[in-house]
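// run 5 | inverse folding | seed 20
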């Protein structure tokens, strides 16, 4: 880039003025009909914070404090978005009417049938007011799903935004992924209530091509950028100021060739936009999108007016008619002034100007703006030789810095060859480092274990180390990579034997005769498998469907206990699951829920099961030996390898805690009598970082699972299990940073990718809940003339999400805090169903709801856990929130679902506890208090309940 890409100081004063204006509007609320004044204040504050991040040096931007701040903001924002999405939101209804108009052969830009909503007034019908590219992806999602609701919309948005995240990682192959991981929650979940994802995707692609062109200029790059800008103009209008800023920056008015080149590019962009608009009518699209959004009076007819930083004061002063001209002038001046800045600073300034002069606040675009800042800072970090722990050198004559277009024919070509060789070697080393099956060189951020004693330097807070690179330079001899350990053939033999045996047992017992959907002939199986006609959510009972995750964990063990990496073992679990669904049950549907639970859930349960079993098998004493049989596959393969010295390799975890506990529980619940239960269970936690808690400075990446947890507890009364809870968690692919002095004071921080599972089940009260009635059989046993009496049950697979684990050591105190968030697939008991059935007919609801009281749902969870240990005393606290909405398509008997009402549930769980370890004895006394609130809805009908639980007892710790 030929201009400075750093942030100037001037805009800071303008942003402060914007904050002041929005604050005055919020206090006075002066605009007739204006609502939600806080949106403008939130927007201006967020823009100010993002501008400071852009102005920060790259090493500060990618410093741990900033990354932790960004991660927490993303997690909180994602949790809020998941919590507030509504099945009846305006955007869902608007798109539903768009799809109806299209399928009726009408033009949504002229039909006058598109749903709009004015807050405080209600429904209004008009024309569609988003550009055409905001139709196609969601219409495709609607056609694939066969229905349209908030779950389909959110899934489409998250999928598109996941592509944006993938683009970000592909843009920076030389940066450690741990520097980019904290931005994932913001990218994936920063906006899932409105349709900003296509703007996000096109902007990400444009930035990627711009970066590739800066590194290796190619003529086709400019044409690709022009086409992408044309497509982006047909998404939301943030793309227009980005496009204007880009071409204003690249244009040289004194150069005729630059003028001609820019004219051609703009013509390509315009032609692309016209082609997208043509099926709907170019004039109609422009009239109902661009012109509609700049005339406040026209907007007020169909939409609620939320005063923004410019439109609010003008409407207050009665000058609303001047708004289009004022907005255009201010935006044009901002774009013209930005030509003096670097390209990314110019694009950021233009986007800021657009968000400030927009008719209403548009916080939906903040993730896109943050993405732009990350790209700019990432490129700056790549250009900073000190951040790569490389010796700085001055460019030779004709050389150009990273990101600049090389000049000159001689030295420039040499520089390009050198840079290309360096980049190729770097990518090659990244490939080697990413292989989990080899003893490959590790990519680490900061100091590795061998550098633990080295003092930190403010000039190099980030470093990247390749042991092979050092060997090549003669600094460190490195031997040939070791061959993969393990017995891969035996792993597949065990998996095959298990799969064949279970298949034979299934068929010999003629299991589940009600589940016979496809005959055993070529045509039926071709349609079932290849044409995906068998791809459905099945109609099995709750206990059968959640337990598929145990099968996935078993498949996973065959790989792990035979020395295979976790990712390879996970692939084995998915292979075993696919075998079962396609071959083991050829007469049944290919259950999507079983594939998710068995295949994807194999890691969440299988890895803790393996780690804990492997640990116990290497411990002395009868208790550990007996507990080791909790994982019989580990026991079996350890016995088979008893004469193999390599099988005795074992790295003891730095910290572990295994408990057997028993005590009493007091339960108080809404609508139920208070009762006392016997409470007992098992709990195991391992932290497999050998350096954890030891003095020194450590900064390194972690590729293998490093944290494992498993809990199983029961509350029983009168010989019945009143409540059962089973939970697991595994964390991998992270970053480990630790700084502890000689006195033991300091901190330990890990950030990784976690996956977990939780089962919660209350004792059934109704006989049809205790012994579920198979579908399409004896409906008399369901007692449909009575209100439903299902008890609460949940099986939540927390598929993936960031996990931040911070431990602070200070003067004998140890404070460990864990914060995590995840995307969930869940089997959820509808907590509103019992009350709903008192006043509504439940026939026609989803099959599993009708028969068993639960539904398949998608959602998210966020939790924070803290524990303080001091001289045998323990204090802990937990706060967790989860929200799930039903999947309203691909029911096994979709034709019978005549009341496809959307269902949703939330759970809030709070816990506080105390413990005291008896001196010189492995005994702990504990007391905990837990509060749980469950709420649910079916369509517009909602209900909720609360419980309070008090626990006290003894724990045997190992």
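// decoded
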């Amino acid at each position: 880039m030929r201009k400075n890409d750093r942030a100037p100081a001037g805009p800071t004063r303008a942003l402060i003025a914007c904050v002041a204006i929005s604050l005055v509007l919020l206090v006075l609320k002066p605009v007739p009909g204006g609502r939600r004044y806080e949106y403008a204040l939130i927007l201006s504050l967020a823009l100010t914070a993002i501008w400071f991040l852009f102005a920060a040096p790259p090493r500060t931007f990618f410093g741990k404090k900033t990354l932790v701040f960004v991660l927490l903001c993303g997690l909180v924002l994602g949790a809020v978005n998941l919590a507030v999405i509504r099945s009846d939101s305006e955007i869902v209804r608007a798109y539903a009417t768009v799809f109806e108009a299209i399928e009726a052969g009408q033009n949504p830009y002229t039909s006058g049938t598109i749903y709009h909503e004015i807050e405080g007034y209600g429904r209004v019908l008009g024309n569609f007011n988003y550009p055409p590219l905001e139709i196609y992806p969601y219409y495709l999602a609607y056609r694939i799903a066969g229905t349209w609701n908030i779950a389909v919309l959110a899934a489409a948005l998250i999928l598109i935004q996941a592509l944006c995240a993938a683009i970000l990682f592909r843009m920076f192959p030389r940066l450690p992924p741990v520097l980019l991981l904290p931005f994932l929650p913001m990218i994936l979940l920063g906006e899932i209530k409105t349709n900003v994802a296509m703007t996000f995707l096109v902007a990400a692609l444009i930035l990627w091509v711009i970066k590739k062109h800066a590194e290796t200029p190619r003529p086709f790059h400019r044409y690709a950028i022009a086409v992408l800008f044309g497509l982006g103009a047909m998404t939301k209008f943030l793309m227009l100021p980005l496009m204007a800023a880009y071409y204003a920056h690249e244009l040289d008015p004194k150069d005729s060739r630059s003028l001609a080149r820019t004219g051609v590019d703009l013509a390509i962009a315009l032609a692309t936009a016209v082609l997208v608009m043509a099926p709907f009518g170019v004039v109609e699209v422009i009239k109902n999108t661009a012109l509609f959004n700049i005339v406040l009076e026209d907007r007020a007819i169909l939409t609620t007016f939320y005063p923004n930083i410019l439109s609010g004061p003008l409407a207050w002063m009665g000058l609303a008619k001047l708004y289009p001209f004022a907005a255009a002038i201010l935006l044009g001046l901002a774009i013209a002034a930005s030509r003096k800045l670097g390209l990314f600073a110019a694009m950021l300034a233009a986007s800021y100007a657009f968000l400030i002069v927009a008719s209403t606040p548009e916080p939906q675009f903040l993730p896109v703006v943050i993405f732009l800042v990350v790209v700019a800072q990432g490129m700056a970090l790549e250009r900073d030789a000190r951040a790569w722990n490389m010796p700085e050198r001055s460019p030779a004559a004709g050389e150009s810095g990273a990101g600049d277009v090389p000049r000159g024919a001689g030295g420039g070509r040499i520089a390009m060859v050198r840079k290309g060789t360096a980049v190729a070697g770097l990518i090659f080393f990244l490939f080697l480092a990413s292989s989990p099956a080899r003893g490959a060189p590790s990519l680490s951020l900061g100091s590795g274990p061998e550098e633990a004693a080295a003092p930190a330097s403010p000039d190099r807070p980030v470093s990247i180390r390749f042991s092979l690179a050092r060997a090549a330079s003669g600094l460190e001899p490195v031997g040939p990579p070791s061959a993969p350990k393990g017995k891969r053939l035996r792993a597949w033999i065990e998996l095959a034997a298990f799969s064949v045996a279970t298949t034979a047992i299934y068929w010999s017992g003629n299991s589940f005769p009600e589940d016979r959907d496809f005959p055993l002939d070529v045509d039926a199986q071709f349609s079932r498998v290849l044409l995906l006609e068998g791809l459905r959510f099945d109609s099995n009972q709750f206990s059968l469907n959640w337990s598929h995750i145990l099968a996935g964990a078993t498949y996973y063990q065959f790989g792990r206990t035979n020395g295979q990496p976790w990712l390879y073992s996970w692939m084995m679990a998915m292979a075993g699951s696919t075998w079962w669904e396609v071959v083991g049950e050829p007469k049944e549907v290919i259950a999507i829920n079983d594939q998710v639970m068995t295949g994807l859930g194999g890691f969440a349960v299988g890895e803790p099961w393996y780690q804990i079993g492997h640990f116990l098998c290497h411990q002395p004493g009868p208790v550990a030996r007996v507990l080791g049989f909790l994982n019989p596959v580990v026991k079996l393969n350890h016995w088979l390898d008893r004469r193999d010295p390599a099988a005795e390799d074992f790295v003891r975890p730095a910290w572990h805690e295994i408990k057997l506990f028993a005590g009493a529980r007091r339960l108080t619940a809404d609508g139920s009598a208070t009762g006392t239960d016997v409470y007992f269970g098992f709990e195991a936690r391992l932290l497999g970082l050998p350096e954890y808690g030891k003095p020194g400075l450590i900064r390194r990446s972690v590729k293998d699972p490093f944290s494992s947890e498993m809990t199983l507890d029961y509350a029983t009364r009168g010989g019945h299990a009143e409540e059962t809870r089973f939970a697991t968690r595994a964390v991998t692919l992270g970053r480990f940073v630790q700084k502890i002095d000689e006195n033991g004071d300091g901190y330990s921080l890990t950030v990784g990718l976690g996956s977990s599972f939780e089962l919660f089940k209350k004792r059934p009260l109704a006989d049809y809940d205790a012994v579920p009635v198979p579908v399409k059989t004896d409906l008399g046993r369901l007692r449909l003339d009575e209100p439903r009496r299902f008890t609460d049950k949940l099986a939540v697979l927390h598929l993936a999400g960031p996990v931040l684990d911070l431990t602070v050591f200070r003067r004998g105190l140890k404070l460990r805090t864990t914060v995590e968030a995840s995307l969930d697939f869940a089997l959820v008991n509808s907590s509103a169903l019992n009350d709903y059935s008192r006043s509504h007919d439940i026939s026609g609801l989803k099959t599993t709801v009708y028969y068993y009281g639960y539904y398949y749902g998608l959602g998210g969870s966020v939790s924070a856990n803290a524990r303080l240990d001091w001289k045998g005393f323990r204090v802990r606290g937990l706060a967790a929130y989860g929200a799930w909405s039903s999947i309203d398509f691909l029911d096994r008997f979709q034709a019978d679902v005549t009341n496809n009402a959307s269902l949703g549930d939330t759970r809030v769980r709070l816990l506080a506890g105390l413990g005291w370890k008896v001196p010189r004895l492995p005994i702990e006394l504990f007391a905990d208090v837990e509060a749980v609130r469950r709420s649910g809805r079916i369509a517009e009908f909602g209900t909720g309940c609360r419980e309070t639980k008090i626990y006290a007892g003894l724990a045997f710790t190992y």
